[in-house]
Amino acid sequence: MVRSAVVVKYEEGVHRELFWCLCCRQEVKRHLSHGSLTVLHGGLLQHFASPEHKKEVSRFWWENKAEGRLKPQFVISPEDYERFKVSLVKALDAYEEREDELVKEMAACIREVEQSRQELLQATLELPAEGEQCDGASAFSAPVRSESNRAVAVAEEQSGPSGGLPMVPDHGWLEGGPALTFIGHQEAAGKGNIHTGAEPPWLMQDEAAPGSKQIGPSYEEFLKEREKQNLQKLPPERVGANFDHASQTGDGWLPSFGRVWNHGRRWQSRHQYKSESGEKAASQKKKERPKPNNL
């Protein structure tokens, strides 16, 4: 049994649990929520203390002939429920105190951040003020410099076809070394960077060397050689072993594999094939038979 109440902040997915009361045959809320607060197991205790639940527990014990000593575990007395209410008031006060402390801590943190921001702002405003004091000295020299520039401009206006000698440009700086001719930027075709519109290296095709040759056989030659090796593993006297695939056949060609449709009837072709195979075997045995030694 819950001895004292526990108050926490309400959470949508956690504090909406239901439990099935076997005696009352209905679902009941496990926790008791109000606003943003939740009393853990408050709904369970409230249901166990209700008179309807006590009546249903008595009916369940009578119908199922349950043990009487277990019945008090499924019912909460009014005295226990009153003690739970008293602990609930204390839990609410403790929760409010904790929330007030959290609010005070957050307010102190906000004040500290605001103070540091004000100090930083004050420091940034003082720097331009010092810069304006330094620029004050240069402000007095600006009119003098502008007056000298105005005098030079007046002298240039007076010098001309009616005012005096014309201004001759000084080309002495050209006599210091040999003359140079600018022929433009030399860039190789197809080279450069992305800013000149050149093709990136990963899209360029490799130029084949003139003396490069293919190393090893081609793929077609490899397939032909592999097919030839596979044919060598087959029995040499199989049907169609000596068939020339490159030979030209006429329109009247018929397949002769297995001595079928050779000439005459099927049984004649079969006997002819057996006789020829027997003659071949006999001739092969004669060749393999050792010759007698002449004394």
Automatic annotation (TrEMBL):
<dbReference type="GO" id="GO:0005813">
    <property type="term" value="C:centrosome"/>
</dbReference>
<feature type="region of interest" description="Disordered">
    <location>
        <begin position="266"/>
        <end position="295"/>
    </location>
</feature>
<dbReference type="InterPro" id="IPR028015">
    <property type="entry name" value="CCDC84-like"/>
</dbReference>
<feature type="coiled-coil region">
    <location>
        <begin position="85"/>
        <end position="119"/>
    </location>
</feature>
<dbReference type="GO" id="GO:0042176">
    <property type="term" value="P:regulation of protein catabolic process"/>
</dbReference>
<keyword id="KW-0175">Coiled coil</keyword>
<dbReference type="GO" id="GO:0010826">
    <property type="term" value="P:negative regulation of centrosome duplication"/>
</dbReference>
<protein>
    <submittedName>
        <fullName>Centrosomal AT-AC splicing factor</fullName>
    </submittedName>
</protein>
<dbReference type="Pfam" id="PF14968">
    <property type="entry name" value="CCDC84"/>
</dbReference>
<dbReference type="GO" id="GO:0051304">
    <property type="term" value="P:chromosome separation"/>
</dbReference>
<dbReference type="GO" id="GO:0000398">
    <property type="term" value="P:mRNA splicing, via spliceosome"/>
</dbReference>
